[in-house]
Write a structure and sequence with these properties.
The protein has 703 residues and is mostly beta strands. It contains three helices and 45 strands.
């Protein structure tokens, strides 16, 4: 059975900021939300199908909503818990409405929201109701629908208020409707976050999809590649975040009204609460409408205005915090009067963020405003904040554009901002070999004994440890999405004296990084070691082989995952931890211990777990043979050869008439000592590690 942690991240972005992680952790601490699904209400009288516009006219008084299409950029989170104060009243949130859809005939759970393109669905007539329950806290009194959640007076640790949504047998679907005005804009993009906030034992396959249409009538269109088959985790988990949205087609450019719908449906299973937050609709360009020919006006004298221009700026991004990119707007010409112009940043290869904090993985913060000049003033600054990070990435660009001049004209109205990458791939101070030596992803129950064991040694020598792990990161990949779901930075860490480093549950012997039970998924999934930093692999990062050191791809009776197998050398197999039907009793470990080479899985065998210590591999054995010889090379009969294992156990072999000795069933990976003795000669002992059959391991007598 799969044991998901942060699982199935979908969407066009998949990069999660630290603040979202804190928010989800706060929800997890706060406990579960909601009650069981209520029974479907009695069938309502059929009503004629209505458009959203008609529904507003007939079903919601004007004072309960403000559906005015909002100009771009449009940003909305829910940190202000005074926006919604009365039941079903969205008037304090311009441009946003929340609806539930109730169909008295269609009661089947698991309806794909991609099939709901109009304002009703299925047989019978769907009732759309403006819906929101304000001022809710943990365990809201409403069983389903749309709720406004915010910190409760008792101190439950919500970091921010949010909007929660839960469907049920009586709420067939629920959606937020965004009304935006794209007049004069192109390159329209929508982003938002879906958070699993249900920490109860409920479990459902909770669909979500993004849709759009031009105007407020007709069918919606599904945004390509933005369907999430399940935005929630399993029972008792509420740590998943999905960044959804994407680029809208050119048909929505330069329109007075575009409606964007985020819709989820009654799930298969017991529906879970999700949150819809950090809504953002932006544009990257200015639409150029076809000019309408107009009569040539009679020339009139125009006053001489100064011309405005803005320079280019190129700076290092920095490693953390915000770096100020200061653009200079210059007036050329007569300066005796005041002037002004509006400005706005537009993305190039750099991504932007807005709201009370940057959206996940933003490169810079959007800047919109007015630059003003007093009489006699020739220059004025415009500041744009660039977000520092430690990611290795190409140089990135954005532009700042001047428009709507007053008392001036626009000369060079575009300034190019170049964010110079100042990061280099991390490398350890001492070259080391670091491999995944043993993994137990399915220890049974709550999996509190699962672990990952690494083995490291300095490449310039044979000593195992301790060695520094600076510059390395362990990354966990989910086979369902083929994206990362957790990463462990190893800076400042080192192996123990025997070369081992262990990530696992609190009860695992020798554990160095403690993780909660059920953190490791059990397939098909992967664990990889990279040169890098944990910020390079935030949840939702795609599979990569850049700076890859070692990896294991594994499962518990799941099909091979071709997209994860690229982490291994060609032809290397995916390991089935349940191949013997005993996945909860065994681990996957290299046999012999630490051998096989990076990105190779053929050495892995299923054995009893040996975390933070030597892999004994009792099911894999080798044979040692050789001769005991005189200094002249003749075989010595009846010489005694003694094999001593790591536990001090001794085995003996007496040589034949040709001086041959033999030991069978020597366990793989053991470091042993061989010594020989006879009445006449002395022999030098041999200390070795067994990782293959050994022949011609001869003892030659000393004079």
């Amino acid at each position: 059975m799969r044991t998901p942690a942060i699982d199935r991240l979908r969407g066009g972005f998949g990069k999660i900021a630290i603040v979202l992680t804190l928010l989800v952790a706060a929800f997890a601490a706060a406990g579960s939300l909601g009650k069981d699904d209520s029974a479907r209400a009695a069938a309502a009288s059929p009503l004629a199908p209505h458009s959203i516009f008609t529904l507003k006219q007939n079903r919601a008084p004007f004072d309960l909503l403000n559906s005015t299409a909002q100009p771009l950029p449009f940003l909305q989170d829910w940190t202000n818990n005074g926006l919604i104060t009365n039941p079903n009243d969205w008037s304090g949130v311009p441009g946003i409405e929340g609806y539930i859809m109730q169909n008295p005939v269609v009661a089947t759970a698991g309806v794909d929201p991609r099939t709901i393109l109009g304002d009703s669905f299925g047989a019978g007539t769907t009732t759309n109701s403006l819906n929101v329950a304000p001022n809710q806290v943990v365990n809201p009194t409403v069983a389903d629908g749309i709720v406004e959640l915010h910190p409760d007076a008792q101190g439950n640790p919500f970091f921010y208020p949010t909007i929660g949504v839960r469907t049920s047998d009586s709420v067939d679907a629920a959606f937020l409707l965004l009304n935006v005005n794209t007049t004069g804009r192109s390159g329209i993009e929508v982003k938002y976050a879906v958070l699993d906030i249900d920490c109860s034992d409920r479990n459902a396959v909770q669909f979500a999809v993004t849709q759009f249409r031009v105007g407020n009538t007709g069918n919606f269109t599904n945004l390509p590649n933005e369907f999430v088959p399940d935005v929630t985790q399993g029972p008792g988990f509420c740590t998943q975040v999905a960044i959804m949205g994407g680029d809208l087609p050119a048909s929505v450019n330069n329109q007075p009204l575009v409606q964007i719908r985020i819709i989820t449906t009654n799930a298969a299973g017991e529906d879970e609460w999700i949150a819809l937050d950090f809504l953002e609709v932006t544009s990257t360009g200015i639409a150029t409408p076809t000019p309408t020919p107009t009569p040539t006006p009679t020339p009139t004298p125009t006053p001489a205005f100064p011309s405005l221009s803005v320079n280019d700026v190129a700076l290092d991004e920095g490693n953390f915090g915000l770096t100020a990119f200061t653009f200079t707007v210059t007036r050329n010409g007569p300066l005796n009067n005041a002037s002004s112009a509006s400005y706005e940043t537009l993305g190039g290869s750099a991504t932007t963020g807005g709201g009370p904090f940057p959206m996940p993985f933003a490169d810079y913060l959007r800047a919109v405003g007015v630059v003003t000049f007093q009489p006699g003033q020739a220059t004025a600054p415009v500041n744009v904040s660039v977000v520092g990070d430690r990611r290795v990435e190409p140089n990135e660009t954005f532009t700042i554009n001047l428009f709507n001049p007053i008392g001036a004209t626009i000369g060079d109205g575009t300034g190019l901002g170049t964010i110079i990458n100042d990061d280099v791939p991390p490398t350890p101070s001492t070259p080391i070999s670091l491999i995944v030596n043993e993994v137990d992803s399915d220890s049974g129950g709550t999996d509190e004994n699962e672990f990952i064991e690494l083995f490291g040694r300095v490449t310039s020598g044979t000593a195992a440890g301790p060695v520094s792990l600076d510059g390395h990161v362990v990354v966990l990949y989910d086979g369902e999405t083929n994206r990362s779901y957790q990463a462990f930075d190893l800076d400042g860490r080192q192996t123990n004296a025997s070369g081992y480093f262990t990530i696992g549950g609190a009860g695992v012997p020798g554990v160095d990084i403690v993780i909660p039970g059920n953190t490791l998924q059990n397939g098909a999934d992967a664990i990889a070691v990279f040169f890098g930093d944990d910020t390079d692999f935030l949840p939702g990062s795609l599979v990569t082989t850049e700076n890859l050191r070692d990896a294991i791809v594994f499962d518990t009776d799941d099909p091979d995952d071709s997209e994860l197998l690229v982490l291994l050398n060609p032809g290397q197999p995916q390991i089935n931890e349940n191949a013997d039907g005993t996945s909860t009793a065994v681990s996957m470990q290299r046999c012999p211990n630490s051998f096989g080479g990076e990105r190779n899985t053929t050495p892995y065998r299923l054995e009893l777990p040996t975390p933070d210590t030597f892999n004994t591999c009792p099911s894999l054995t080798f044979t040692i043979t050789g001769r005991v010889l005189t200094p002249g090379g003749q075989g010595l009969r009846n010489a005694i050869v003694v094999l001593t294992d790591p536990l001090g156990m001794r085995r003996t072999s007496t040589t034949s008439s040709f001086g041959v000795y033999n030991f069978d069933n020597v366990r793989a990976g053991e470091s042993i000592t061989l010594s020989a003795s006879s009445k006449r000669y002395r022999f030098a002992p041999k200390i070795l590690t067994v990782n293959q059959n050994l022949t011609d391991l001869d003892f030659v007598g000393l004079e």
